[in-house]
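The pair is quoted verbatim below.
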Amino acid sequence: MSGFLVVQAVIILSLVILDLGVAQPSNKTININNTNTPLKFYCGINDAIISPTAFSRNRNSTFSQLRNKFSTTGVFYATARSLENDNDVVYGVAQCRNYLLLTECLACFDVAVSVVDQSCGSANGAHVFLDNCFLRFENYNAYYDDPQGTLDFAVPEICGNDSTSQQTTAFNQAVKELLSDIRFATPKTSDFYIASTRQVANGANATVYAIAQCVENASQAICKNCLSTAYNNLYSCLPAKEGRAINVACFMRYSEFPFFRNNQTINLIPFLKGSSSKSSIIIGVSSGAGFVLLILSLFLWFRRWRKSKAVGKVCFTVCLPYDALETSGEFQGTRCYTYQDLRLATNNFSEECLIGKGGFGEVFKASVDSGIVMAIKKLHVGVGAKKGFENEINIINNVRHRNLIKQLGWCIEGHDLLLVLEYIPQGSLDKFLWGSNYAMSPTTFFGNLNSTFSQLRSHLSNPGVYYARAHGSENEDAVYGVAQCRNYLSSTECLACFDVAVSILQPCGLANGAHVFLDNCFLRFEDYDQFYDDPDGGSNVEVLELCGNESTSQPITAFNQAVQELLSDIGVATPRTSDFYIASTRQVASGANATIYAIAQCVENVSQTICKNCMTRAYNNLYKCLPSHEGRAINVACFMRYSEFPFFQNNQTVNFTPFLPSKGSSGKFGTTIGVSSSVGLVLLIVALFLWFRRWSKSKAVEKEFKGVRCYSYEDLKLATNNFSEEYLIGKGGFGEVFKAVVDNGIVVAVKKLRVGFRAKKEFENEVNLNSNVRHRNLILQLGWCSDGAELLLVLEYMPQGSLDKFLWGEKKGTLNWKQRSDIILGIARGLVHLHEEFHFKIIHRDIKSSNILLDDDFQPKIADFGLARFHPEDQTHVSTGFAGTMGYTAPEYATRGRLSEKVDTYSFGIVALEVISGRSCSDVNYSGAQMEYLLDHAWQLYEKGMHIKMIDEAIDPNEYQEENVKKIIEIALMCTQLVSLRPTMSEIYLMLSSEPQLKQRQISRPTYNVDRRIHIVGS
């Protein structure tokens, strides 16, 4: 969807976004008139390069590649790397502002390169910031996906020398609103860039210009956080006439002078999200309704208690209402929905919700009350349908991967079989390859668009016509349009507003849709017609309030009360009128004969319910504008406005008294609804009947699907002979593990957590993680139990036990080289899934040999997720209290609490050394008078070129090739380097599985006191 513009009176209000982050602010201000003067630059470490000559050559090669990419029109972001000498490889990224011409971009890039050449010499990295561009190079590539990486940058603001020449209060207000808007909008754009303007409300026709831009490879979360910091820092520049906030991830700038062309602004309103409405309705519940809730609660408790007594069955299987998707249930996973809920969510599986068809049924789009959009697959009942349904539940419920569709729930009711899946807005790939939209003709599209506008204008030219819809449909490029004028306008005034709206849409070009809001009219076109009856459909447009710049001149209390009462009344009355329109006035009780003017209008084709809901949100949002002298609330479904100045004639008001509730109701939202005891009794009977009917049907179709189950404590106690010592197979930091056989004959491992300060939290964490993660190298969770203080996990049973037993335990020396190398590769594969392939990045935090279990084929499975954590996508690391095992944990985490996925990488390196050597990381080796642990010993041997001696003497030398063993040792040592030098697990897996030997790659023993950047501030 392209954007839409907001016009306030005659002025078009363009809204925008901002926010950023960078290093320590400089007290020195700059001359911003010269846009190619470096704002700041930072140089890295000068003594970290092996060959200065090779590094300089590689850096020049990288810069040359970047410049070549910028030589293509429309390219504003580029990355490159040198192609020779891996020891001194150079990675680069550059970005120009999107308002630049090609020659302007190249000129700025050349200045940035000259700054590097003159000031940073042979440094191993540098950043250069200019107004028009940004250049960065490093000797590592991790910053491509994580620009801020390990650099502890703040977001310094650079303020202009002079204060604004405009009225300070109005200027500050305009800047803050503009930067706030572009802060929110920029992370939602496809290229992380917005340029926009804002008028200064001081009568001097002054304008504020601003841009916000994030590095394109950053995640949306990183962009959002960076711009938020930038916004907060730029706030301190006011009332300076200009200011900037810079960071390696983002850039934000404002000025009272234009620094981009007027036709280069971006419509940011589609990317802004309105505030959520606060409910003003207070519902009173009588004793009868309270009695209903009491009986229902007792009924549900009794039903759940009865089911929990059944041995081997799921603890309880109550199908939840669709509005409980995100809020009920402590542990997330596949849920059971009722047919009625899914039918309601899809409007009785109507055609308007249909988004696809397949060999086994249709797929519908649905939205729950919490706002979650889902796809519901309804299977055709026929030969193989039931079997296919069971098969799909079993498969999808046990598979988790970021590139596989996620199952949210299911439903069986009689012959109706439904799956609830995550919604993919772009649809299937075939539509982009040979679908109906692949051959869109610009000529045909513009012809249809102009035809639609012409028809709309013709309809509106008739006296008394304020709403019109039309469509142009030649070939496949149909255009559907709707237009509406305020009912207080004459035909001439309506057409004049419509013409302005059409002219505003011209910059939208070939966009497949747009909306334009003006005070006097509204225009919208789309390439689909469903929005006629459901304007909010796929628009994602909330109700947005636009408040005036000045407070009322009337007494505030009296003014606020008059506005609230008037808006409340017209909000209630408008949905009850035939044309969904009301204009009215209200006197301010101040003795000054002051009057409030207000209108409310819904798009005529919407339902009364949609109009009512939109009015409610508009009222709630406009409430926040007070005591501003005027305000508007806009949406694709409705419009509401108030002002202390007249904007319609006194004889154009509508008498709305007949449309208010009877008996002279105040008409305010917030009406208290009383429910009598008789109504409560009826509700009780109906509720009990429906619950009994649902319970009866569920008994007829009850089926156990494979997945995470809830076991009763008595069942697990019986299966482990009261958790006796003879069933005990292991102990861990949080409890014991028992071998058990459940009632269906399956051998399982039951992990019983010790009840302590953190036990409940760790239990919830492990259930949540294990129930959603599926991989051949990760332990499979089969069920769980929570009974008072008893917390238990039911896991797949690993007959061979843990890896440490085969390295230095009772089975020491029994693993051959092939088994050991497969174990190392399997652990790496499992960590790749946790870090990069699951829907969220997961850090295990406790990778060690005792947490690696082996199956019958000696394939490894990572276990014990009690300490695992989801890692925010927008952060390079998080600060947290240490939790893990000393000896396996990375130093930056153990000493400073800096948690990232590289903590698992370090632990993997230690485990790999243990597998190769057959020794524990805590084993001490005495070299003369010096005591060395396993890792120190490995580094000593590597630095002497003797690391082949690390291999376990129990391994037959005929089983391995020395080069392969040395390669794996070197990879393990790589994992224990400084965090900035550690490879990712996907890189490690690739090196282990495909490269016969490592390329020339420098590996250096860490000292953990040199991982810092040297900052040099330019002026």
